[in-house]
Design a protein that fits this description.
With 239 residues, the chain is α/β, with parallel strands linked by helices. Helix content is 31%, strand content 30%. It has one domain: 3-Layer(aba) Sandwich (Rossmann fold), CATH 3.40.50. It has helices at 41-49, 73-78, 96-103, 130-143, 160-173, 191-194, 214-224, 227-230, 234-237, and strands at residues 3-12, 15-25, 30-34, 55-63, 66-67, 81-84, 91-95, 123-124, 148-152, 180-185, 198-203, 206-211. It is globular, with a radius of gyration of 18 Å.
């Protein structure tokens, strides 16, 4: 098991955001997590990353059998965890090429990954377009040679052409090389390219649905919204 989350409950301040999350990802599997805004998806990513802003009040996070619930972020990264963020930070004065020199565990051809050569000589994410930020994040992730990658809304703001380009890179450089992947998404369009093995739906801080047929789930959400998921009607009379 690459990632196993057991009955995870999390607070921010006095507010409970995650209310008993259970999730399992095996080596080489691609999973998806969908949910409406404010469902707890981004909080889950932050907690897996080790953000101290969030307090785990119950449960555990296991990564390759190691309990990482209380480990600092850098230790989680050393174990092989990698995350891309919906709004990655700008690092002024640090060229992307220099950052890659520091973090890279394997040689990669950035041009093959769709990077404009000039991007390497610019400060990380400074005045990058939305597409350039996504490619920059992907290059950094692949350089780390991770065991599990979590994509937090990587499809956000991308048109269909750029979405297809990003998806092809993810599939070729990660999925086809048996790296475990968890895709966090609101719209779900990217899943038509990545074709996850398991799709989970999160509503109100809980994962309320786990399905193998991602197309069925996407169709249900598109036609009925998340209300049908809330009422647990997907299994009873899905489309």
């Amino acid at each position: 098991m690459v990632l196993e989350i057991k009955d995870l409950k999390v607070k921010s301040g006095e507010k409970e955001i995650l209310k008993g999350i259970n999730l399992k990802i095996n080596p080489g599997e691609t999973h998806a997590l969908l949910g409406p805004n404010a469902s707890g998806k981004s909080t889950l990513v932050q907690v897996i990353a080790g953000n101290p802003k969030y307090k785990v009040t119950w449960g555990n996070i296991l990564f390759n059998g190691t309990d990482i619930t209380k480990l600092p972020t850098e230790e989680r990264i050393k174990l092989g965890l990698a995350i891309t963020w919906q709004n990655p930070p700008t690092i002024k004065g640090v060229k992307l090429s220099k950052l890659l020199d520091k973090i890279s565990k394997q040689g990669i051809n950035t041009e093959e990954l769709g990077a404009n050569p000039g991007i390497l000589d610019r400060s990380v994410n400074l005045n990058f377009s939305g597409g350039e930020k996504k490619i920059s994040e992907l290059i950094q992730i692949i350089s780390l040679n991770p065991k599990l990658v979590i994509f937090d809304e990587i499809d956000s703001g991308l048109d269909i052409k750029k979405l297809e380009k990003v998806s092809k890179i993810i599939k070729k450089e990660l999925i086809d090389k048996n790296v475990s992947v968890l895709v966090i998404t609101h719209s779900g369009e990217i899943l038509n390219f990545l074709k996850p093995k398991i799709i989970n739906v999160m509503v109100d801080g809980k994962i309320i649905c786990e399905e193998k047929d991602y197309t069925r789930v996407l169709k249900t959400i598109k036609e009925y919204g998340y209300e049908k998921c809330r009422k647990c009607e997907l299994h009873a009379d899905g489309p």
